[in-house]
Fold this protein.
Amino acid sequence: MSNQKRRLINQAILAVATTLGLFSASVANAASLNVLWYGHTNAYNSTISEIAALAPTYDPEGDGSLDWNLTFWNPQDTTPNFSDYDVLAIGTGSKFQTPTQAFNFDPTRILNNKEAISAARGNRTFLSGQDADHHYTYNVGPRPNGPLGFLVNAVNWAGSGEGMGIVVLPDGHGGVNALPSQRQRWWLNDRSFLKDELEGYVSYLGDDSVVIPTETSDFPVNEGLTTAGLSNWRGSAHAAFDKNIPGYLSINDAGSRPGYAVTIVTASEADGGTGGQETESVPEPGSIFGLFLLGGLGVRSVLLRISQ
């Protein structure tokens, strides 16, 4: 075979490889979520922005990660179009101030938009008594097998279903006798979109022992997390759910209170993936066609030159 033909064959191989590379990059770049996070103070929002920046780096099992297109919905902001988002995240309901975190939760806008949130709400809801947004900077820190991994998994799982997923952290710190500033209880408010589901199944308590059940330990929503990593936060959980609650499944049990869960998720979707909504995980058909047409024309040109 002449050197010229070898060069032409190499060019054909390069054209195919380039096309496949562009296709792979297109798929990877599409892996993102539109995240709407209910805001607190500037300091709190800054912490959430840091978590969002780290989200693409969290991939303990090497099966892919997601970028977050993060938008804050602060209490003073206009009401967003909820259907524009893959997930709504509502952090810990507290006005508690610490040296590293400034909570100033005001549930008014959530309560005033019960109907709009319910209309956009999808098929995945994640509810937890663990205040991971607080412990990300307090006591525990940004530990992957801890607050960071917990929050990334929660948002990625909830946002990977149909419609707008929901992530809700506890509506306060401490038990029933906690200071009012530490508990902005809204779950069971008459205007809460969660009241009908949670009433009669919530218990406000403190628990530092969180147990991942064997049957849910391999679920994507628990990726990279262990019982040890979720426990001993010096206040790991501030609310628990009766495990008999209809429509939900425990993915994290309350270790010191049999029959109760620290975190529950929509039962029918509990073992669902965290790779993003299907419509966003692949490029448009026209883009795929264009990439392969480009590569095909390049290969055809080279093969014609070889045959001459």
In short: Residues 62 and 223 are 10 Å apart (CA to CA).
